[in-house]
């Protein structure tokens, strides 16, 4: 049976096409280690040493831990590590890593809040108990407190402090919690704890049995969806900037091809020519539509002027007739107008609030026009009306009998 992981499932959710490249086509790419991931790994190693030594009754001093961090940094550093920002040097990141460890040490010393059970613990979560849907994960630190309380600790070194909503919706630690509950039957309470080291912040949440069961069913459904998927469309987002498959992805493949060409080759590229032509045609259509709209408005105004001069309500053509409406109409205050609340109170007072559905201005105007309101109500709310000039032309096709009656007889 296939073995999934949080990162594998998350990859599919973020971009199905990237999932296909990585886990179905298994396309290998050269992934450069970034300074951010390098820093995170060194900090994780340092905290792992802290708790591993404590399990053997050895308490490191803060300076001993910092010296260990610096030694690991020097030993593992290489010039291929990608520094994503030109504004910062490796030394800046080293000092950040030292601060992360220093703040953590001072916050939790002497580290007796709970008893560590395992570090970087490999755990397999069997979602339905049959082995059909399994997820592999690694817990940064698993700890225990008296009373059947288990803690899943996760260390984050990213420079973004997520909002609580993100934490509540995150599924990585809850997945691990399902595995811990299955492994340790005495677990009465499982606490999910994120340590955001860049901000010296700890965020803890708990989930109940119903939430864990909902997560089980969601994960099974997600795995089924992946396994039955026929298409793996790209899902462009800001994450594309860090995707290792951009050069072969249809979203960016053409762009990478063009970036290596000369100006002449670029301009002669068939794709460039087609897109430019398409854009040109759309722009031309837009201009034509604007021109036609201007002609329509001009002709409409001429029909209205003609109808006014001739005293006509309807003007006839060979195929259609134009109904001309010229006059004024009364309108009530729209939403956002302070006078609307005053009108609302008047309508409530006279018991017709429900009839106009939170001041349906069109319905209220119709009631006024049809004389359907008591005269005293009409008089009181008339002060809320304002006059609005109306000039409209409604075009309707002529019926066949109208066409025949209008057609001149042949001589």
Give an overview in words.
The chain has 411 residues and is an alpha+beta fold. The protein folds into 2 domains: 3-227, Lambda Exonuclease, Chain A (Alpha-Beta Complex), CATH 3.90.320.10; 311-406, no CATH class. Helix content is 48%, strand content 18%. The protein has 15 helices and 9 strands. The protein has helices spanning 6-14, 16-24, 35-55, 62-76, 90-108, 164-169, 172-183, 209-227, 253-259, 263-268, 270-310, 339-349, 361-369, 375-381, 400-406, and strands spanning 3-5, 115-126, 134-145, 149-156, 189-196, 201-206, 314-316, 320-331, 386-397. The strands form 2 sheets. Strands 1, 2, 3, 4, 5 and 6 form a 6-stranded mixed beta sheet that branches. α1 packs across α2 and α4 (62-76) runs antiparallel to α5. It starts with a strand and ends in a 5-residue tail after the last helix. The model has no long low-confidence stretch (mean pLDDT 89).
Main features:
alpha+beta, Lambda Exonuclease, Chain A, 6-stranded mixed sheet, elongated, 2 domains, 3-stranded antiparallel sheet, single chain, 411 residues
Secondary-structure map with pairings?
Blueprint lengths: L2 E3 H9 L1 H9 L10 H21 L6 H15 L13 H19 L6 E12 L7 E12 L3 E8 L7 H6 L2 H12 L5 E8 L4 E6 L2 H19 L25 H7 L3 H6 L1 H41 L3 E3 L3 E12 L7 H11 L11 H9 L5 H7 L4 E12 L2 H7 L5
Parallel strand pairs: 1-3, 4-5
Antiparallel strand pairs: 2-3, 3-4, 5-6, 7-8, 8-9
């Amino acid at each position: 049976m296939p073995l999934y992981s949080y990162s594998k499932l998350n990859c599919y959710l973020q971009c199905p096409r990237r999932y296909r490249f990585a886990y179905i086509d298994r396309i290998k790419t050269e992934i450069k280690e970034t300074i951010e991931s390098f820093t995170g790994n060194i900090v994780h190693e340092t905290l792992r040493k802290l708790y591993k030594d404590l399990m053997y009754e050895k308490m490191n001093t803060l300076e001993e831990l910092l010296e260990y961090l610096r030694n690991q940094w020097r030993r593992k550093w290489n010039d291929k590590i990608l520094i994503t920002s030109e504004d910062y040097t490796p030394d800046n990141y080293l000092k950040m890593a030292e601060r992360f460890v220093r703040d953590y040490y001072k916050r939790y010393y002497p580290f007796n809040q709970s008893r560590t059970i395992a570090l970087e613990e490999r755990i397999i979560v069997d979602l339905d108990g049959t082995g059909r849907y399994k997820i592999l994960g690694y817990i940064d630190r698993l700890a225990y407190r008296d009373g059947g309380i288990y803690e899943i600790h996760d260390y984050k070194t990213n420079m973004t402090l997520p909002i609580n909503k993100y934490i509540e919706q995150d599924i990585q630690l809850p997945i691990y919690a399902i595995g811990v509950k299955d492994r340790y039957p005495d677990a009465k309470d499982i606490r999910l704890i994120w340590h955001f080291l860049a901000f010296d912040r700890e965020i803890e949440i708990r989930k109940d049995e119903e939430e864990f069961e909902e997560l089980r069913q969601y994960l099974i459904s997600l795995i089924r969806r992946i396994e039955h998927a026929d298409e793996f469309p790209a899902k462009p987002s800001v994450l594309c900037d860090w995707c290792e498959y951009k050069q072969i992805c249809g979203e960016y493949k053409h762009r990478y091809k063009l970036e290596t060409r000369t100006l002449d080759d670029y301009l002669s590229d068939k794709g460039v020519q087609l897109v430019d032509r398409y854009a040109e045609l759309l722009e031309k259509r837009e201009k034509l539509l604007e021109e036609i709209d201007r002609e329509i408005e001009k002709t409409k105004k001429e029909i209205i002027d003609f109808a006014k001069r001739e005293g006509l309500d309807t003007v006839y053509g060979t195929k259609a007739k134009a109904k001309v409406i010229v006059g004024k109409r009364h309108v009530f205050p729209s939403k956002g107008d302070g006078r609307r609340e005053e009108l609302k109170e008047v309508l409530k007072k006279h018991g017709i609030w429900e009839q106009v559905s939170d001041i349906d201005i069109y319905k209220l105007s119709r009631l006024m026009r049809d004389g359907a309101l008591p005269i005293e109500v009409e008089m009181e709310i008339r002060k809320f009306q304002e006059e609005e000039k109306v000039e409209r032309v409604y075009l309707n096709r002529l019926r066949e009998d109208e066409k025949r009656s209008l057609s001149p007889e042949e001589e």
